């Protein structure tokens, strides 16, 4: 199995078996103000939102996780089938392996998502570091691979810096993103991979014409930590130590959400989102939707029903938060009263112009 595909399999194994979680999303510092007289019927709450020009039943995204190895086909099949059943969105992992390797079994790990989810909102995924090499035409091929409704371009340069075989040439990425955003047939979302997107970077991306920003902030799975495990396994102890040093690097998800939402009207909050209440807080901070990755991994290994069960739990938690803030629609939740306390408040005040 080629190196790119093996790396994808390594990532899933490490996430399942090792301690690769961080803390500090900032959501603990965010409190929604309770409405004792909501004056709405809970059963009439509408969680639907529009994302990438398509309607979702709830502002929930199964974040990009996997693909690129035959071992991941089952996971993507179960995740996509659940997205189809519940009407939420899903992204696939990096499609680099699918574009570069002529292997039908490997390709199926991506194409299976549209096979089992003909109506779901699905988005593809490619790395910013590969855009100059690929150009718009190759990214379009990634769109066609899964009949994607949108394409995510991921920013993962801390991960690449720790990876023994990492791509650490970040020159020209913004221009390449702008070319893809202008020329691609579907909306483009730029996403981080666990270290957040600052307000200044979000402004540059907005000016480049991207359709959405997924902040993927600090506080969930640490890809620096994942690559530290991989580096150690091949004897790259110095890079492993660097990966451990940077496990808690980045902007907390709550802060990144606030900063990105100040300059872009379509922000997905991900990075340590672990509940429907976290999603509610993220939306109150300005997000359009909330995304989760690792919490779906265990259920995906069990089967579609387990994934659906988690989604329904998230929806009920979100519905409850909407009810007790008097928010009949998601738009109401975006204007719900909230208070930011503690370290998050200090962080924001120190970064204020």
Itemize the secondary structure elements and their pairings.
Elements: H1 3-17, E1 30-32, E2 49-51, E3 54-56, E4 60-62, H2 73-86, E5 89-91, H3 96-100, H4 104-116, E6 121-127, H5 131-146, E7 150-154, H6 157-162, H7 173-183, E8 188-191, H8 199-207, E9 212-214, H9 223-233, H10 237-245, H11 253-261, E10 267-270, H12 276-284, E11 289-292, H13 294-302, H14 304-323, H15 330-333, E12 338-340, H16 342-351
Parallel strand pairs: 4-5, 4-11, 5-6, 6-7, 7-8, 8-9, 9-10, 10-11
Antiparallel strand pairs: 1-12, 2-3
Helix pairs in contact: 1-9, 2-4, 2-13, 2-14, 5-7, 8-11, 9-10, 12-14, 13-14
Function: Involved in the biosynthesis of isoprenoids. Catalyzes the 1,3-allylic rearrangement of the homoallylic substrate isopentenyl (IPP) to its allylic isomer, dimethylallyl diphosphate (DMAPP).
Protein name: Isopentenyl-diphosphate delta-isomerase
Enzyme class: isomerase
Structure in words:
It is globular and about 60 Å long. The chain is of the alpha/beta class and 353 residues long. 48% of the residues lie in helices and 13% in strands. The strands form 3 sheets. An 8-stranded parallel β-barrel has the order 4-5-6-7-8-9-10-11, surrounded by 8 helices. Strands 1-12 form a two-stranded antiparallel ribbon. α12 (276-284) links the parallel β10 and β11. It starts with a helix and ends with a helix.
